[in-house]
Amino acid sequence: MEHNILVVGGNGLVGKTIIRILKSRNPHIHIFTGGRKGGNTENDLKVDVTDPASFQVISDKKISLIILSVNDRSDNILRFAIDNGIDYLDITKPTPDLVRAYNLAKSRNVNSRIVFSSGWMGGIVSGLVKTLSVEKSDIQEVKLFVYYSVKDLAGESSAHFMAENVAKPFIRYENNKEVSIRHFLDSEKFDFSFGIDSREAYNFDVPDLYILNQIEKVPSVNVKMTYNSKLITWLLGAFQKVRIFNILSLKERRMIFGSSGKGDQSVFEIIVTTKQGSEKLSLKSEKGQAELTALSAVLHTEELLKNIHENSVCFSHQLHQPYSLMEKLKTYQTIHIKTSR
């Protein structure tokens, strides 16, 4: 079967990385790059998420799967995929947008696979959580600790999300109760693996808070993040504590969060607490966030290409058997995973 895949936002950092990894692993598939300005080759398509009139080319090229790696606030691509029976994989949405899009998709009759993959690092956390507990009902709490390096090569989307939302409260879950919190407060000391050492980690909003509680029914979920620079981490906490972010303009906040280096490691760690005790899974991507996010998107795509999954609305971790997902990640040369009690 011929597969025509369109990566919307394929000229961005993560989009380009998805195309590179996907081509290297699946040379037989035909990949198109979608962007607002089009391009110079027959594989470059002019697809503007704000202009549904530009979507006709998706039908003309007989696209069977759309990978969305750019922010589509109005869900125009999602609606087009549903209306035209095209498979859809979205790796871009912050929590509020994800909830809205998921509810939209669930309210429609779908004749394709509509997959949301906006959790941390391409939606793999919930799948890895399942490797730490045989029975989902046994899980009482999940904590996710994120190590972020300002030297990492990062795209604009995460920086823009932080700039737009840093002054807004968000929700974590404690015994299935919503707890309103703000970024960079309520520090917790955590001993990171891979030689990073002990760091103060602060509140951080990722869609996994919603996914683990509302979809996977984990009663308590908490996410905290630290920067590679202890000074930067402390300053962000101080800014939030005295509400400096509230008085800064969006442009000024983007300047604070918009730094992007030439590349560095990315690390996250999952602590799962059950009635029997706690277990930890630690993951390091030597090439940083963009590489890991793109790899995750490719693994989800490869699952969809098998055509074994029924038409439905789901989250990307639900495509995989948990241990299968972990083994696929482990086989990638620059990914390192270890578990411990």
Automatic annotation (TrEMBL):
Pfam families: Epimerase
Location of the NAD-dependent epimerase/dehydratase domain: 5-69
Top-level taxon: Bacteria
InterPro entries found in the cross-reference section: Epimerase_deHydtase, NAD(P)-bd_dom_sf
The name this protein goes by in its record: NAD-dependent epimerase/dehydratase family protein
